[in-house]
Amino acid sequence: MNSQRVQPRVGLDCLALPNRPTGAGLYISLLAQSLLARTDRPFRLAVFCKPGHTHRFSQWLQPGDRLCPVPVLNRAHLLFTYEFLLPMLLVRHNIQLFHATHYLAPPVPPGMPLVLTVHDLGIFLYPENYPLAKRLYLRARLPVFLQRATSIVAISRTTAGHLAERFPRQAARVRVVYHGTDHLPEKKIPAQRNAGKEPPFLLSVNAFEPRKNIPFLIQVFERLRLRYRMPHRLVLAGYAANGLAEVEACRKRSPLADDIQILVNPERERLLTLYHQADAFLSASRLEGFGFTPLEAVRCRLPVFLYANPAVRELFPPSPALFPHLDADRWAEQIFRDWLNGFSHQPDPSFVQPLTWQRCARETMQVYQQCFSLQEVPAHVA
Questions:
Q1: How far is it, in rounded angstroms, from Cα 338 to Cα 342?
Q2: Which CATH architecture has domain 9-180+356-373?
């Protein structure tokens, strides 16, 4: 009896995707869409997602692809799903390789390759910045998830280095695949930023998490206004997280509270407008695996002033606008001088051009192919 060889089916994990993707959620959504859109992939895709998210992927499906809706009631149910339900679903849908895209990795059937994406190791490096339950669970279970993986995708050399330091036995299985940065829609940039908008403003776009160090930016802003008499406002935009209350309290205590605007969960179109209207972008995040928002700012030709955390040092060319310290006085002095000089010390934005989602998809496919090369894929799988 002859069996017909067909393309293997790869399961792609989109269960951690929130309703409004940012950060890791943006990676999950855009990687899935980019993989689905590729006509050169030698495998079919099965997207495992929440029932309410199927519309995000349905238009990209090609013949042989499928959507696998999985109800998720809450965080506890999500953890239960990974450990006990997903293994059965992988068999039911004839999955030959599964890509877990956000730390959690199910126990896959014997012989099935598992790819696991790790975004950063903040849970180990800055544990005090995370809720207790999340901290205890991930610190206990991530070593198990890493052990299950055939290949581990790190989103930067920074994350790969942290993995090698913390989990040296897994280092040989780590592959670096950068995110894309070309997801913002094209928008005409005004000849003069903020033309007709008064007063001008400085922008920070970050999740309101403690490790993003947003209160420090308020300190810098106060010096720019009170010491150097810059006319700007400060706009702090991002999705709500466990550091929002502290940021709001810092704003209320500031003598410039009326000139500090906090935008929680802004729409992407609103963010794009902010990127194009702001005079400069600020970020003092202590740790990033990749860090979308500074690169989005550069894509929009927005001058940036950043704390040179390891990911920033990896991805950005050297510039006086990258600070190796968190001294608010020195930040304010440098920003003021650059403002007077028309932000002449900014990096050439061409360095972000190679960071595309199609490149991310292509290199992720290469990881899959490496995993498949380690074993025989059944020829009769339908």
A1: 6
A2: 3-Layer(aba) Sandwich (3.40)
Asked if the model's pLDDT at residue 192 lies above 90, the reply is no
Asked if 79 contacts 42 with a C-beta cutoff of 8 angstroms, the reply is: no
Q: What is the pLDDT of residues 145-165, one digit of tens each?
A: 999 999 999 999 999 999 999
CATH superfamily of 201-352: Glycogen Phosphorylase B; (3.40.50.2000)
pLDDT band at 108, cuts 50/70/90? Answer: very high
Residue 120 pLDDT class (50, 70, 90 cuts): very high
> What number of other Cβ atoms are within 10 A of residue 60's Cβ?
16
- Measured distance between the N- and C-terminal CA atoms of the chain, rounded to whole angstroms: 15
Residue 195 is inside which H or E element, if any?
A: none
170 CB-contact burial (10 Å; exposed 0-12 / middle 13-18 / buried 19+):
middle
Q: Return the DSSP state at 29.
A: H
The CA-based diameter of the chain, rounded to the nearest angstrom, is: 84
